[in-house]
Design goal:
Layout (H helix, E strand, L loop, with lengths): L4 E2 L2 E2 L20 H20 E9 L11 E4 L2 E11 L6 E8 L11 E5 L2 E3 L2 E3 L3 H4 L2 E5 L9 E3 L13 E8 L10 E4 L2 E11 L6 E8 L11 E4 L4 E5 L2 E5 L3 H6 L2 E4 L14 E6 L3 H6 L4 E8 L11 E4 L2 E9 L2 E3 L4 E11 L11 H18 L2 E9 L4 E8 L23 H18 L2 H54 L5 H29 L3 H4 L5
Parallel strand pairs: 3-11, 4-10, 12-20, 13-19, 16-20, 22-27
Antiparallel strand pairs: 1-2, 3-6, 4-5, 5-6, 7-10, 8-9, 12-15, 13-14, 14-15, 16-19, 17-18, 21-25, 22-23, 23-25, 24-25, 26-27
Length: 543
């Protein structure tokens, strides 16, 4: 049997299959990587299209920052990532390289600010507490104004005010910074209306310029008449009405603050532009002082001690404040060998009103010198007086003294010299000193010797007087007694003679009657001769 036979079947006679050729096609297996490729390309394009600028930010320290993890956030939304942190060439600061989202490119300008957000306590406020667990991040204050920038210098402290807030900026000029700092609050009617955003020394080097930002809508209350004052700490006043304590808020007691207000009737004053400059008054009471514009300086000379007198001490006229002390010096005159204490005062002349003058302010401005001359002629003088017996502080008191020596204001000097008089205690001291000086001129030693001689003489006289008294008692006294007895007898005789029934008294009465009649006759004759003077020649005519 042939090998091609298998179990009775001939293999040669079997039909052969012919494969049919069909057109090529892609297997479904390749769709998966193709879709993945398309998705990756789309994601890559999306990432490329959203990729913004790469920027560099410098800080003094990279504390809390981690490359690849630290984010850049605006309103808590991530808009960038820090990819690299490196030291500068001089190792004085660190340089951060960060990539930003595309949408942030328009706000990366030369006025854009960056800072590190960490947990911090400043100006009585706590911020950045969320970074305790999540770590520090970079904050941004975007700005669309200015040229595009790629390199930035980061702020070491967060800005107090960002550009998205509505309001106005103003400058405040102060003699010193006091307890104010960046972030110190600004209050209006005890409501927080703004903050201190900057501080710098003024160009004159004598004052400090503070930048403040007043939030809307409170910025509309700032006008030309607005007054700012330092509301830091606690104002404590002890006066005739009792104890007064005032503070703007608890925060101002701890970290300081500023307050402002508008005088009554000034709400209609013209509005002002940003960065207008105002004076920052020392306290609320100083506002009233600053409202007087017509001030004039004068010089007072004191020869006595000025212990207790300080700059800022009040100048009062009959108890009403007229100004304050602005300077205290010591002056030596080599010609007279004397030392004087020149005290400079500043008086606000517009505190004085003149009856019958409609525009007192203008009158005082033009005639204040004439007014002061007249007051000085009436006895107005300046004198040091104790203002507070507890602290020993002095003030300059002005009053009228009718017994003051005539004098005038010396207008030839600058500032003019205003006349003064010594204090009551100084007058007493001068009087005692004058008495002592006179006593020193007396020849006390010679006088004492003469006094001893007088005492010796008086002693001798007393001895002689005592001896005379003894002699009188022995010889003179009996004679005197006898004389007195004889005098008594004589007086008794005279009394008997002058009794009503005595003859002598009766004769004396008759004599007096006759004398009276004679006097009447003489009076009648005198009257007749006055009327008829020719009777002395022709005699009396018979009617």
């Amino acid at each position: 049997m042939s090998e091609k036979r298998l179990e009775g079947i001939e293999l040669d006679n079997l039909p052969e299959a012919t494969p049919e050729e069909k057109p090529g096609r892609i297997s479904i297996v390749w769709l998966i990587p193709l879709i993945a490729l398309l998705i990756g390309a789309w994601l890559g394009y999306k990432a490329w299209s959203e990729m913004g600028s790469t920027i560099k930010i410098t800080f003094k320290s990279a504390e809390g920052l981690v490359a690849g993890k630290t984010k850049i956030k605006y309103k808590n939304v991530e808009i960038g990532t820090v990819h690299e942190i490196e030291l500068s060439a001089d190792m004085s600061h660190v340089i951060l390289t960060a990539s930003m989202v595309k949408s942030a490119d328009a706000y990366l300008t030369e006025t854009t600010r960056f800072w590190i957000v960490r947990a911090r306590v400043a100006a009585g406020e706590v911020s950045g507490l969320e970074t305790v667990l999540s770590g520090a991040y970079i904050g941004i204050d975007p700005s669309a104004g200015g040229a595009t920038a790629k390199h930035f210098t980061g702020l070491e402290t967060p800005p107090v005010v960002t550009k998205n807030l509505s309001g106005k900026h103003f400058y405040l000029r102060s003699d010193d910074l006091g307890s104010l700092d960046l972030g110190s609050p600004v209050y209006y009617q005890k409501i927080k209306a703004g903050s201190v955003i900057s501080q710098k020394l003024a160009d004159d080097g004598q004052s400090v310029m503070l930048g403040v930002f007043i939030n809307a809508p409170y910025d509309k209350f700032v006008n030309q008449d607005t007054r700012f004052w330092n509301a830091s700490g606690l104002d404590f006043t002890l006066d005739a009405n009792g104890i007064k304590m005032y503070t703007e808020s608890f925060v101002t007691m701890i970290v300081g603050g500023i307050a402002f207000e508008n005088p009554s009737g000034s709400m209609q004053a013209p509005a002002i532009d940003e960065w207008q400059e105002f004076i920052l008054y020392e306290n609320y009471d100083a506002i009233a002082e600053g409202s007087h514009l017509q001030s004039a300086s004068y010089l007072l000379y004191f020869t006595g001690s000025v212990r207790g007198l300080s700059i800022g001490a009040p100048v009062e006229l009959k108890g009403i404040k007229l100004g304050q002390v602005t300077g205290i010096k010591m002056e030596y005159n080599p010609d007279t060998k004397n030392i004087k204490i020149p005290v400079t005062i500043e008086m606000q002349m517009d505190r004085i009103t003149v009856n019958g003058v409609p525009d007192t302010s203008t009158f005082i401005r033009n005639h204040h010198g004439e007014l002061l001359d007249e007051l000085v002629r009436q006895g107005l003088r300046a004198q040091l007086e104790t203002g507070n017996y507890l602290t020993g502080q002095l003030l300059v008191d002005m009053d009228f003294y009718q017994d003051a020596s005539p004098t005038d204001i010396d207008w030839e000097t600058n500032p003019p010299v205003f006349p003064t008089i010594p204090t009551p205690l100084e007058k007493i001291s001068n009087t005692i000193f004058s008495i002592v000086k006179r006593l020193e001129k007396l020849p006390l030693e010679k006088m004492s010797k003469q006094l001893y001689q007088v005492i010796d003489s008086m002693t001798e006289i007393m001895k002689q007087t005592e001896l005379l008294t003894k002699n009188l008692n022995v010889t003179v006294t009996p004679a005197v007694i006898a004389t007195l007895e004889q005098t008594e007898k004589t007086l008794a005789t005279v009394e008997n003679v002058l009794e009503d029934e005595s003859p002598v008294k009766q004769d004396l009465g008759r004599v007096m009657d006759e004398l009276s009649k004679a006097l009447r006759s003489i009076r009648l004759l005198a009257d007749y001769l006055e009327q008829n003077p020719d009777a002395l020649i022709y005699g009396k005519e018979n009617n």
